[in-house]
Amino acid sequence: MTELLDGLLQASVWLSLATLVLAAARPLLLRLGGAALAYRSWWLLPLMLVAPYLPLPRLPMTETDPVMVMASALRAPAVPTDASQWPLLLLTVWLLGAVAVACVSWRAQRRFEHALGVLQPRMDGSWQASGDPGLPALVGLWQPRIVVSPDFEQRFSPAEQELILRHEHSHRRHGDPWANAALAVLRCVFWFHPLLPWAARRFLRDQELACDARTVDPHPALRRLYATALLKAQLVHPVAPMACHWRSQPMLKERIAMLKEHKRKALPWMTGQVLVVGLCVGLCTVAWASQSGAGDEPAKANAATSDVGAQARDLTPPRYPKAAFDQGISGKVVLRVEVDAAGKPGDVRVLSSTPAGVFDEASIAAAKQWTFEPARQNGHAVASALKIPMTFELDASDPTL
Fold first, then answer.
1. In the predicted model, what is the mean pLDDT of residues 192-209?
2. pTM for this predicted structure
3. Which residues neighbour 58 within 8 Å (Cβ) at sequence distance 6 or greater?
4. CB 3.0-4.6 Å disulfide test: which of 60, 75, 292, 329 passes with 349?
5. How far from the centroid of its chain's Cα atoms is residue 388's Cα?
6. β-pairing verdict for 311-314 and 371-373
């Protein structure tokens, strides 16, 4: 339970960092590679969420004897407080929020699809709806279909119809419905994240701008015609969370302004690609390297090579937390302590704790003051990790605190 909450918190931090970096880099990306490059840079978000869970090279880890921390129970109340209720409460709130956001998105999508009415196939491969809740649009996930409004032929000229269909075909070729579905999942999981609403709006706008650029860049002479088709369609704000709409009224000015830009030269375009790749690789490497090494395997002694695991030299027990003592709480903590080649403690992580969060801070603070004998491999001191269990108990005597 606490592992899930810790994972959500860690993912939220990396999501915030990636969003802020993209917001700061977006003007430069637009100058170097245009809307398509800015849209491509959003790959950073899912990569940052996956990178911390990729496996790390494992340090050899050995276990030590348990560290006992005793304190008097004379002043403890008869009925202790269960501190583990907070993780359950927080997890319940998160789950209710995720379900609520999923239900709202599902209802909006279903309402949009129901408003389409009966769909009739057209000769150009698209489908014509009997209703118009915000068309033309690319609708569906597994087999997306281009759906146009009942007055499609009357509203748009044949040349404009061809441009609109080309736009929606570009959405389908580049998998934009799947990108929107992934965004819907992120909105459900991170419904509490303060930056996600802005990131979602900016992502969808960059998606439309990139599709516009892919449609008109090969045919610069059609930019005016394309702008005219945009102006004719800006009547209804799209409401389906997983449909790729032609209409997008809030960003009409931005789309028209993009059409006035000239195509980038090859050198700045290539510079932009390198910048996006560098951002993704650099930040994902930091996220990957920051993860805990909880999966490290215990070290095995090898007499032939004289491999020896790290040994504890001084494990001074921590002070019993006052809040836990006053409430009569006992518990256990298992630490993972990295020991460098000089025998000094490095990164200290909590592998497990019961009750969650009660004794973590005191345990980590004490572990950073401990001293060790470093592990040895082939006669040389090497970095390793120690798994150290700690038990916090209350006894019947009244020690001097």
1. 94
2. 0.74
3. 293, 295, 296, 297
4. 292
5. 31
6. antiparallel
